[in-house]
Amino acid sequence: xxxxxxxxxxxxxxxxxxxxxxxxxxxxxxxxxxxxxxxxxxxxxxxxxxxxxxxxxxxxxxxxxxxxxxxxxxxxxxxxxxxxxxxxxxxxxxxxxxxxxxxxxxxxxxxxxxxxxxxxxxxxxxxxxxxxxxxxxxxxxxxxxxxxxxxxxxxxxxxxxxxxxxxxxxxxxxxxxxxxxxxxxxxxxxxxxxxxxxxxxxxxxxxxxxxxxxxxxxxxxxxxxxxxxxxxxxxxxxxxxxxxxxxxxxxxxxxxxxxxxxxxxxxxxxxxxxxxxxxxxxxxxxxxxxxxxxxxxxxxxxxxxxxxxxxxxxxxxxxxxxxxxxxxxxxxxxxxxxxxxxxxxxxxxxxxxxxxxxxxxxxxxxxxxxxxxxxxxxxxxxxxxxxxxxxxxxxxxxxxx
Length: 401
Description:
By secondary structure, this protein is mainly β. The chain contains 1 helix and 28 strands. The protein has one domain (3-395): Methylamine Dehydrogenase, Chain H (7 Propeller).
């Protein structure tokens, strides 16, 4: 072969290889993907599994019946498989965690024909095959919002229950924060509830130190039992033992409503909570981050109120290994909900950048994870071509598309 021709062919192949590699990296680091049926769909939680992503939510299969929905994608966000809850009852998946043997364990709710809600748990194989499912409830509502691996085996779920509790004065029909434990087969081991005589909710939970948990939610029950009492909503933090007993609890709030939606750890090992902050002036809802000492949940290390262009609330916040903080939620701009994305600096907490996503409105970012390639991945829902789609949004390391 002519030497010059060989060099030319080699140069073209190298250029194509570099271009493909660059294109693959671009697709891997940033994408927006839609999933679900032709009706209503939502992605409620997600995990990363060896470079792939698995998310859960729900999908409306016809005009009336929602089914729990789970799907796995590759690193580019392309579907590898999808599966649904068993049967045709009204089921929603709200949380997912990695089980043993590359399985996936999910929690959520199942609603019967009378409107009664039970806690629903299910386990799926690495190929999406259903392994088992179970539900718990009785005559009162129970809902699972988040699930994690237990410190000593099995799984811990946080959610809400309307079960009567004489211990904390919760009347039947009012919500308490509920924390329960199940074993590897989905059987119930422990169920405890926390709160008071008004509405109290459990939204997120993290394991700590091999023998404790921190749960966060929103409380309306407490008066003089906690500092900064007011008549509205408070961020509710509960420190739990391995057996899910209350070791300590505290509420944060002032003259405005505050909500606690998510909890994680910062790079110093302290607690970082995301939620909402309602000002008294004009009833403006704002995003809120609260940094709490992990050794003393009564010590506020830092906080940040975020108010950019609309009515805002943070639903999840996560921290990358380099210290980059990303939060997501919703921003209501001109009566249209959009997925809100915030890049936040630490020491002190400060808003560095923000933007909104949403093609036709009615969009929300429900959960996010810090990914192994340095970016973040958001799970939520967005309206596109008049369909509410389960949505995944992959962000680059700098919290940009």
